[in-house]
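> call design_seq(struct)
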């Protein structure tokens, strides 16, 4: 049905699906903050696991759908392109948080650990792409390692959040998780959790629509899979992270904002695991293109810069944003220029 739509209708449906994802994510952000307080999960963990996973659902649907149809590059570039775009969104949020550098104000050990875990998870696909082409039942062993590493990392992140072995230096700009009043915190989390689940389902359905339109652009107009994946579907399905980050910053939930981006990116590495399972022509890592590897390296570089900013905790910088945010803008801009120019492969 989507294949038969004209260009105007394709763009219209694409825009509507994107708006639905964004609207659902706005409501999901507020609910995640409430659930974090009522379950005592904490903003950083709620952002990294609950909100990060929910807002990433549309993206994982796109990658899995692309992989099942045999387009490995589309699946991989959508996953790693989304990680780069979402890291950029955190730099955008930094420009809007005028009181201090966002990475300084949102000091949180759990976010630091999740950034380290993200770098580890991003290094594994590079090893798989550079190593021997092996697959068992069509799945590369690295996919299993990534899945186990993610689960173990989430467990360790929870420990870091509950019982940190060190704490950041307190400054005037440091902001902490401010829970609801005791009366509100004692309320049940059941109702907001049920609404949250419904919103997640809506975002997943919208992600499927976006994936079908992206595939149509590739087949009908001859666009490269990496271009569509990294710069179209990845950005569109990452809009919830942009919205939730900006909303969280406006609400003063800075740990939730930073944790949502880093945690969402960490969850996004599982796009590759799910895509490897859905791709039936062997290992998806062996079928990835140099352009996909380029975006994977870009995501790692941007994450490393972000981690450096979280550790450095610069108070002032150009236009009252951290140097790490400026570098993230530069790196992403260069990556887009290379992709558009067709130099990545």
């Amino acid at each position: 049905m989507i294949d038969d739509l004209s260009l105007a209708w394709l763009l219209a449906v694409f825009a509507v699906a994107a708006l639905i994802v964004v609207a659902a994510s706005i409501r999901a952000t507020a609910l995640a903050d409430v659930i974090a307080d009522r379950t005592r999960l904490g903003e950083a963990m709620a952002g990294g696991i609950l909100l990060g996973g929910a807002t990433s659902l549309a993206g994982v649907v796109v990658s899995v759908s692309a992989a099942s149809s045999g387009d490995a590059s589309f699946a991989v570039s959508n996953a790693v392109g989304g990680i780069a775009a979402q890291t950029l969104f955190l730099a955008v949020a930094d420009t809007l948080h005028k009181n201090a550098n966002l990475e300084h104000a949102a000091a949180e050990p759990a976010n630091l650990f999740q950034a380290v875990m993200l770098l580890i998870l991003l290094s594994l696909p590079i090893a798989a792409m550079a190593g021997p082409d092996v697959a068992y039942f069509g799945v590369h062993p690295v996919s299993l390692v990534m899945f186990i590493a993610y689960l173990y990392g989430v467990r360790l992140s929870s420990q870091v959040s509950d019982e940190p072995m060190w704490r950041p230096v307190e400054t005037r700009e440091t902001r902490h998780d401010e829970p609801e009043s005791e009366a509100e915190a004692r309320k049940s989390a059941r109702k907001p959790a049920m609404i949250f689940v419904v919103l997640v389902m809506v975002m997943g359905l919208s992600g499927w629509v976006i994936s079908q339109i992206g595939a149509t652009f590739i087949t009908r107009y001859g666009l490269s899979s990496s271009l569509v994946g990294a710069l179209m579907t990845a950005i569109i399905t990452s809009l919830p992270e942009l919205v939730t980050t900006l909303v969280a910053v406006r609400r003063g939930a800075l740990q939730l904002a930073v944790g949502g981006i880093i945690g969402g990116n960490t969850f996004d590495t599982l796009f590759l695991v799910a895509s490897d399972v859905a791709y039936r022509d062997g290992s998806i890592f062996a079928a990835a293109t140099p352009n996909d590897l380029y975006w994977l390296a870009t995501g790692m570089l941007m994450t490393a810069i972000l981690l450096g900013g979280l550790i450095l905790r610069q108070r002032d910088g150009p236009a009252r944003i951290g140097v790490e945010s400026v570098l993230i803008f530069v790196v992403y801009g260069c990556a887009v220029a290379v992709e558009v120019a067709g130099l990545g492969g």
